[in-house]
Amino acid sequence: QVHLVESGGGLVQPGGSLRLSCAASGSIISIDVMEWYRQAPGKQREFVARITRGGSIGYADSGKGRFTISRDNAKNTVYLQMNSLKPEDTAVYYCRGRSSNYRNDYWGQGTQVTVSS
Q1: pLDDT at 8 over 90
Q2: 28, 38, 57, 77: least buried by Cβ within 10 Å?
Q3: What are the backbone angles phi and psi of residue 88, rounded to the nearest 5°?
Q4: pLDDT at 79 exceeding the cut of 90
Q5: Distance in angstroms (rounded) separating the CA atoms of residues 92 and 25
Q6: How many whole angstroms separate alpha carbon 113 and alpha carbon 59?
Q7: Which burial class, exposed, middle or buried, applies to 41 when counting CB atoms under 10 A from its CB (0-12, 13-18, 19+)?
Q8: How many angstroms separate the CA atoms of 32 and 113, rounded?
Q9: Which of 87, 88, 105 lies closest to 96 in space, CA to CA?
Q10: Greater pLDDT, 27 or 109
Q11: Cα(97)–Cα(29) distance, rounded to whole angstroms?
Q12: Which of 27, 17, 22 minimizes the C-alpha distance to 37?
């Protein structure tokens, strides 16, 4: 079992920045991929960014050039640095840890990000 805890959300003005954290604990050896997703009110949950055990990184088009995913293996933590935030980035952001074959698939409880003046 893997436990994921997100933090770092909050209220920020347009153009501002936030750094989200996702701390993992438990059987993290079973995790090959760490991802960030988000879900805005009335919308489906959508992919934001990915980092694999091997270090491969990918982003949704919505975050390219503005969002950066990184990790600290010593702290078992994945980060999402979000810059130049827009009102349309407002959502609950979720951390996901999974194996490559999706056999193991864990989600955090989410952290709210609100971009508003």
Answers
A1: yes
A2: 57
A3: -70, -5
A4: yes
A5: 21
A6: 18
A7: exposed
A8: 26
A9: 105
A10: 109
A11: 11
A12: 22
Q: How far does the chain reach from its first CA to its final CA, in angstroms? A: 40
β-pair partners for 78: 22, 71
**What is the CB neighbour count within 10 angstroms for residue 40?**
14
Residue 28 has pLDDT above 90, yes or no: no
Which residue type is seen at 40? Answer: A
Q: What pLDDT, on the 0 to 100 scale, is given for residue 20?
A: 98
Q: Collapse the DSSP code of 88 into the 3-class scheme (helix H, G, I; strand E, B; otherwise coil) and give the result.
A: helix
Q: Is 49 exposed, middle or buried (0-12, 13-18, 19+ CB in 10 A)?
A: buried
Q: Is the pLDDT of residue 58 over 90?
A: yes
The pair of three-digit structure tokens given for residue 81, joined into one six-digit string: 């640095």
Write out the two tokens for 51.
């980092």
d(CA 2, CA 4): 7
- Maximal CA-CA distance, the chain: 42
